Amino acid sequence: MSDFRPTFRPALGAKTAITSAEVKLSALPEGAIVQVLAPPGEQDVASFLSGLGKGGVRTFSPGQWLIVGDEPMTQEDMKTLFETLEPRATGVDQSAGRARIRIDGKQAGRVLSKGTALDLSADAFPVGRSATTLIGHIAAHITRIDSDSFELIVLRGFAESLWDDLTRMSAEYR
Amino acid sequence: MASLVPCPHCGARPKEEFTVKGAAQVRPAPDTDKKSWVDYVYLRENPRGRYEEFWHHTSGCRRWLVVIRDTATHEIESSCDAAFAGQTDART
Ligand SMILES: [Zn+2]
Question: Which domains can be identified in chain B, with CATH numbers?
Protein backbone atom coordinates (compact mmCIF):
# COMPACT_ATOMS: atom_id res chain seq x y z
CA MET A 1 0.00 0.00 0.00
CA SER A 2 1.28 3.44 -0.93
CA ASP A 3 2.32 5.86 1.79
CA PHE A 4 0.76 8.68 -0.18
CA ARG A 5 -2.25 10.18 1.52
CA PRO A 6 -4.34 12.86 -0.15
CA THR A 7 -4.85 16.06 1.79
CA PHE A 8 -8.53 16.81 2.18
CA ARG A 9 -9.47 20.45 1.98
CA PRO A 10 -12.64 22.27 0.96
CA ALA A 11 -12.61 23.29 -2.72
CA LEU A 12 -13.17 26.93 -1.77
CA GLY A 13 -11.44 26.79 1.61
CA ALA A 14 -8.95 29.51 0.69
CA LYS A 15 -11.66 31.97 -0.39
CA THR A 16 -13.09 34.71 1.78
CA ALA A 17 -16.83 35.29 1.49
CA ILE A 18 -17.86 38.59 -0.08
CA THR A 19 -20.40 40.57 1.90
CA SER A 20 -21.85 43.83 0.72
CA ALA A 21 -25.27 45.43 0.72
CA GLU A 22 -25.84 44.63 -2.96
CA VAL A 23 -24.22 41.25 -3.44
CA LYS A 24 -22.99 38.41 -1.24
CA LEU A 25 -20.88 35.47 -2.33
CA SER A 26 -20.34 32.45 -0.10
CA ALA A 27 -19.22 28.83 -0.38
CA LEU A 28 -21.95 26.40 0.70
CA PRO A 29 -20.98 23.52 3.02
CA GLU A 30 -19.51 20.49 1.27
CA GLY A 31 -22.35 18.19 2.23
CA ALA A 32 -23.96 15.65 -0.05
CA ILE A 33 -24.66 15.87 -3.77
CA VAL A 34 -26.34 12.84 -5.34
CA GLN A 35 -27.05 12.61 -9.03
CA VAL A 36 -30.19 10.61 -9.81
CA LEU A 37 -30.84 9.11 -13.23
CA ALA A 38 -34.18 7.62 -14.23
CA PRO A 39 -35.03 5.63 -17.36
CA PRO A 40 -37.16 7.36 -20.04
CA GLY A 41 -40.85 7.32 -19.23
CA GLU A 42 -40.45 7.04 -15.44
CA GLN A 43 -43.14 9.34 -13.98
CA ASP A 44 -43.21 11.68 -10.97
CA VAL A 45 -39.58 11.08 -10.03
CA ALA A 46 -39.11 14.63 -8.68
CA SER A 47 -41.96 14.28 -6.16
CA PHE A 48 -40.72 10.79 -5.23
CA LEU A 49 -37.26 12.26 -4.50
CA SER A 50 -38.68 15.20 -2.52
CA GLY A 51 -40.72 12.73 -0.48
CA LEU A 52 -37.56 10.93 0.61
CA GLY A 53 -36.56 14.00 2.63
CA LYS A 54 -32.86 13.51 1.89
CA GLY A 55 -32.27 17.09 0.79
CA GLY A 56 -33.21 19.66 -1.80
CA VAL A 57 -34.15 18.27 -5.22
CA ARG A 58 -32.86 20.08 -8.30
CA THR A 59 -33.82 19.40 -11.91
CA PHE A 60 -30.58 18.62 -13.72
CA SER A 61 -31.48 17.41 -17.22
CA PRO A 62 -34.29 15.33 -18.76
CA GLY A 63 -34.55 12.25 -16.53
CA GLN A 64 -31.84 13.50 -14.17
CA TRP A 65 -31.98 15.24 -10.80
CA LEU A 66 -29.59 16.28 -8.05
CA ILE A 67 -30.28 15.80 -4.35
CA VAL A 68 -28.28 18.34 -2.36
CA GLY A 69 -27.80 18.75 1.36
CA ASP A 70 -25.55 20.72 3.70
CA GLU A 71 -24.70 17.66 5.80
CA PRO A 72 -22.31 14.99 4.46
CA MET A 73 -23.86 11.54 4.06
CA THR A 74 -22.15 8.50 5.54
CA GLN A 75 -21.32 5.63 3.22
CA GLU A 76 -24.04 3.62 4.94
CA ASP A 77 -26.67 6.38 4.41
CA MET A 78 -25.63 6.71 0.79
CA LYS A 79 -25.98 2.97 0.26
CA THR A 80 -29.45 2.99 1.84
CA LEU A 81 -30.48 5.91 -0.36
CA PHE A 82 -29.28 4.14 -3.50
CA GLU A 83 -31.28 1.05 -2.51
CA THR A 84 -34.39 3.18 -1.90
CA LEU A 85 -34.07 4.71 -5.38
CA GLU A 86 -34.04 1.35 -7.15
CA PRO A 87 -35.71 0.23 -9.35
CA ARG A 88 -37.19 3.61 -10.33
CA ALA A 89 -33.85 5.39 -10.55
CA THR A 90 -30.12 5.04 -9.99
CA GLY A 91 -28.01 7.25 -7.74
CA VAL A 92 -24.42 8.40 -8.19
CA ASP A 93 -22.47 10.06 -5.38
CA GLN A 94 -21.18 13.42 -6.61
CA SER A 95 -20.41 14.87 -3.18
CA ALA A 96 -16.67 15.11 -3.85
CA GLY A 97 -17.11 15.91 -7.53
CA ARG A 98 -19.03 19.16 -7.35
CA ALA A 99 -19.00 22.25 -5.18
CA ARG A 100 -21.80 24.67 -4.34
CA ILE A 101 -21.61 28.46 -4.29
CA ARG A 102 -24.33 30.79 -3.08
CA ILE A 103 -24.87 34.28 -4.40
CA ASP A 104 -27.40 36.62 -2.79
CA GLY A 105 -28.43 40.21 -3.02
CA LYS A 106 -30.31 42.72 -5.13
CA GLN A 107 -27.62 42.57 -7.82
CA ALA A 108 -27.06 38.79 -7.76
CA GLY A 109 -29.08 38.29 -10.96
CA ARG A 110 -27.20 41.09 -12.72
CA VAL A 111 -23.86 39.59 -11.73
CA LEU A 112 -24.84 36.21 -13.17
CA SER A 113 -26.28 37.82 -16.30
CA LYS A 114 -22.79 39.01 -17.19
CA GLY A 115 -21.79 35.39 -17.65
CA THR A 116 -24.86 33.54 -18.84
CA ALA A 117 -27.45 34.09 -21.58
CA LEU A 118 -30.12 32.54 -19.37
CA ASP A 119 -33.15 34.78 -18.78
CA LEU A 120 -33.02 35.24 -15.01
CA SER A 121 -36.09 37.47 -14.71
CA ALA A 122 -38.49 36.32 -11.99
CA ASP A 123 -41.13 35.39 -14.60
CA ALA A 124 -38.88 33.23 -16.76
CA PHE A 125 -36.82 31.82 -13.90
CA PRO A 126 -38.96 31.65 -10.75
CA VAL A 127 -37.90 30.38 -7.32
CA GLY A 128 -37.21 26.64 -7.49
CA ARG A 129 -36.29 26.65 -11.21
CA SER A 130 -32.92 25.17 -12.19
CA ALA A 131 -30.88 25.26 -15.38
CA THR A 132 -27.51 24.01 -16.54
CA THR A 133 -25.72 26.69 -18.54
CA LEU A 134 -22.41 28.38 -19.19
CA ILE A 135 -21.13 31.12 -16.91
CA GLY A 136 -18.37 32.52 -19.09
CA HIS A 137 -16.57 29.38 -20.21
CA ILE A 138 -17.52 27.29 -17.18
CA ALA A 139 -20.51 24.93 -17.18
CA ALA A 140 -22.58 25.51 -14.07
CA HIS A 141 -25.95 24.55 -12.68
CA ILE A 142 -28.02 27.49 -11.43
CA THR A 143 -31.04 27.28 -9.11
CA ARG A 144 -33.05 30.24 -7.90
CA ILE A 145 -33.47 29.45 -4.20
CA ASP A 146 -35.09 32.77 -3.28
CA SER A 147 -36.13 35.93 -5.12
CA ASP A 148 -32.60 37.38 -4.77
CA SER A 149 -30.63 34.20 -4.10
CA PHE A 150 -29.07 31.64 -6.40
CA GLU A 151 -27.26 28.37 -5.77
CA LEU A 152 -24.53 27.44 -8.24
CA ILE A 153 -23.29 23.86 -8.58
CA VAL A 154 -20.02 23.51 -10.43
CA LEU A 155 -17.49 20.74 -11.04
CA ARG A 156 -15.09 20.87 -8.13
CA GLY A 157 -12.01 21.55 -10.26
CA PHE A 158 -13.69 24.65 -11.72
CA ALA A 159 -14.99 25.99 -8.40
CA GLU A 160 -12.05 28.33 -7.72
CA SER A 161 -12.08 29.71 -11.28
CA LEU A 162 -15.82 30.33 -11.13
CA TRP A 163 -15.42 31.99 -7.73
CA ASP A 164 -12.70 34.29 -9.07
CA ASP A 165 -14.87 35.15 -12.09
CA LEU A 166 -17.85 35.92 -9.84
CA THR A 167 -15.66 38.09 -7.65
CA ARG A 168 -14.67 40.15 -10.67
CA MET A 169 -18.22 40.18 -12.06
CA SER A 170 -19.56 41.53 -8.76
CA ALA A 171 -16.79 44.10 -8.21
CA GLU A 172 -18.86 47.07 -9.37
CA TYR A 173 -21.58 46.37 -6.79
CA ARG A 174 -19.30 46.23 -3.77
CA MET B 1 -24.18 31.97 -37.32
CA ALA B 2 -27.47 31.65 -35.49
CA SER B 3 -26.50 32.83 -32.05
CA LEU B 4 -29.57 31.50 -30.23
CA VAL B 5 -30.40 27.85 -30.67
CA PRO B 6 -33.76 26.58 -29.40
CA CYS B 7 -33.35 23.50 -27.23
CA PRO B 8 -36.58 21.52 -26.68
CA HIS B 9 -35.58 21.01 -23.04
CA CYS B 10 -33.85 24.28 -22.10
CA GLY B 11 -35.32 26.96 -24.36
CA ALA B 12 -33.24 29.41 -26.41
CA ARG B 13 -29.55 29.17 -25.58
CA PRO B 14 -26.40 30.71 -27.12
CA LYS B 15 -24.59 28.58 -29.69
CA GLU B 16 -21.50 28.49 -27.43
CA GLU B 17 -23.32 25.95 -25.26
CA PHE B 18 -23.57 23.50 -28.18
CA THR B 19 -21.30 21.21 -30.17
CA VAL B 20 -22.21 20.60 -33.81
CA LYS B 21 -21.72 17.05 -35.01
CA GLY B 22 -22.76 17.51 -38.64
CA ALA B 23 -25.43 16.15 -40.96
CA ALA B 24 -28.14 14.11 -39.26
CA GLN B 25 -28.16 11.04 -41.46
CA VAL B 26 -29.70 7.67 -40.95
CA ARG B 27 -27.08 5.05 -40.14
CA PRO B 28 -27.10 2.26 -42.76
CA ALA B 29 -27.75 -1.34 -41.77
CA PRO B 30 -24.52 -3.08 -40.63
CA ASP B 31 -24.54 -5.55 -43.53
CA THR B 32 -25.25 -2.99 -46.24
CA ASP B 33 -22.80 -2.66 -49.17
CA LYS B 34 -19.49 -0.82 -49.01
CA LYS B 35 -20.63 2.08 -51.19
CA SER B 36 -23.43 2.99 -48.75
CA TRP B 37 -20.97 2.99 -45.87
CA VAL B 38 -18.46 5.15 -47.76
CA ASP B 39 -21.29 7.57 -48.53
CA TYR B 40 -22.43 7.60 -44.91
CA VAL B 41 -18.97 8.09 -43.44
CA TYR B 42 -17.35 10.47 -45.96
CA LEU B 43 -19.83 12.12 -48.31
CA ARG B 44 -22.02 15.12 -47.49
CA GLU B 45 -24.48 17.12 -49.57
CA ASN B 46 -23.41 20.56 -48.31
CA PRO B 47 -26.62 22.21 -49.54
CA ARG B 48 -27.25 25.93 -49.72
CA GLY B 49 -30.44 26.07 -47.68
CA ARG B 50 -32.26 23.66 -45.40
CA TYR B 51 -29.96 21.29 -43.49
CA GLU B 52 -30.60 18.77 -40.72
CA GLU B 53 -27.76 18.49 -38.22
CA PHE B 54 -26.97 16.79 -34.94
CA TRP B 55 -26.27 19.36 -32.22
CA HIS B 56 -25.20 18.36 -28.71
CA HIS B 57 -26.27 20.66 -25.87
CA THR B 58 -22.89 20.14 -24.23
CA SER B 59 -23.07 22.86 -21.58
CA GLY B 60 -26.79 22.47 -20.93
CA CYS B 61 -28.98 19.40 -20.75
CA ARG B 62 -26.33 17.28 -22.54
CA ARG B 63 -28.95 15.85 -24.91
CA TRP B 64 -28.38 15.21 -28.61
CA LEU B 65 -30.71 17.29 -30.76
CA VAL B 66 -31.63 17.37 -34.42
CA VAL B 67 -31.57 21.02 -35.48
CA ILE B 68 -32.94 22.03 -38.87
CA ARG B 69 -31.39 25.28 -40.07
CA ASP B 70 -30.82 27.21 -43.27
CA THR B 71 -27.12 27.26 -44.18
CA ALA B 72 -27.55 30.53 -46.11
CA THR B 73 -29.61 32.58 -43.66
CA HIS B 74 -28.78 30.59 -40.49
CA GLU B 75 -32.45 30.71 -39.55
CA ILE B 76 -33.48 27.74 -37.44
CA GLU B 77 -36.66 26.02 -38.54
CA SER B 78 -36.99 23.61 -35.61
CA SER B 79 -35.15 21.43 -33.15
CA CYS B 80 -36.04 18.23 -31.35
CA ASP B 81 -34.42 15.66 -29.11
CA ALA B 82 -32.61 13.12 -31.31
CA ALA B 83 -34.01 10.26 -29.24
CA PHE B 84 -37.59 11.39 -29.81
CA ALA B 85 -37.14 12.93 -33.27
CA GLY B 86 -40.54 14.14 -34.42
CA GLN B 87 -42.17 13.82 -31.00
CA THR B 88 -40.80 16.80 -29.11
CA ASP B 89 -41.63 20.30 -30.32
CA ALA B 90 -38.96 22.94 -30.20
CA ARG B 91 -39.24 25.76 -27.71
CA THR B 92 -38.01 29.08 -29.02
ZN1 LIG C 1 -30.74 21.64 -23.65
Answer: 4-90 (3.30.2270.10)
Indicate whether A98 pLDDT > 90: yes
Average pLDDT over every residue of A71-98: 95
Task: Set out the domains of chain A in order of their start, with CATH numbers.
Answer: 18-173 (3.30.1360.120)
Cα A13 to ligand 1 centre (Å): 32
Three-class DSSP category at B28: coil
Q: What is the ipTM score, two decimals?
A: 0.87
Other C-beta atoms closer than 10 Å to the C-beta of B7 total 24
φ, ψ of residue B76 in degrees (nearest 5): -100, 125
Q: Which helix (H) or strand (E) covers residue A50, if one does?
A: helix A45-52
Chain A positions touching B19 (Cβ under 8 A) are none
Mean predicted lDDT score pLDDT of chain B: 89
What is the value of pTM for the model shown?
0.90
> In this structure, are residues B92 and B65 in contact, taking their beta carbons and an 8 Å threshold?
no
Neighbours of A83 (CB within 10 A): 9
Q: What are phi and psi of A102, to 5 degrees?
A: -115, 135
CA of B85 to the centre of ligand 1 (A): 14
Give the residue-averaged pLDDT of A126-155.
97
What pLDDT, on a 0 to 100 scale, did the predictor assign at position A1? Answer: 64
Helices in A86-158 by DSSP H: which ranges?
108-113
Cβ of B9 and A62 within 8 Å? yes
